[in-house]
Amino acid sequence: MKPHISLITLGVADLPRSRAFYERLGFGVRQESNEHIAFMDTVNGLILALFPREKLAEDANASADTDKRGAGFPGFSLAHNVASPEEVDAVLAEAVAAGATLQKPGQKVFWGGYSGYFADPDGFLWEVAYNPFMDLT
């Protein structure tokens, strides 16, 4: 296997609401999207898919036995790296304006960077981070 991630699928409670949220954040909707699933473009080629939570569990032959929002820590977070601490704060504010919940405001972190977290309408966690050791140019 060649290590590569081409798509991340989030199991969402309300597909139209989640699709609208990610569109407000600037994700483009791919033409193969429909009323059952949304495929969202990113600038680096990774695709973010939104699929109803129960249908995703069914598709994976897994149990969807959590509350309807999948409350609690989902065991992973998504990350969006930016070029400065100021941009971290701006992206967090943009996400909140689009309907996200601020989980942790931007702040200096132990590894030398600056980061904060927001939760999308289904509670999926996004870290927005400035890493001074990573060149984003």
UniProtKB/TrEMBL annotation:
Its domain of life reads Bacteria
Q: Which residues form the VOC domain?
A: 4-131
Instruction: Supply the SUPFAM superfamilies for this chain.
Output: Glyoxalase/Bleomycin resistance protein/Dihydroxybiphenyl dioxygenase (SSF54593)
In terms of PROSITE patterns, this protein maps to: VOC
Q: Which Gene3D superfamilies match?
A: 2,3-Dihydroxybiphenyl 1,2-Dioxygenase, domain 1
Could you tell me what this protein is called?
Glyoxalase
Which species expresses this protein natively? Malikia spinosa
The taxonomy runs: Bacteria, Pseudomonadati, Pseudomonadota, Betaproteobacteria, Burkholderiales
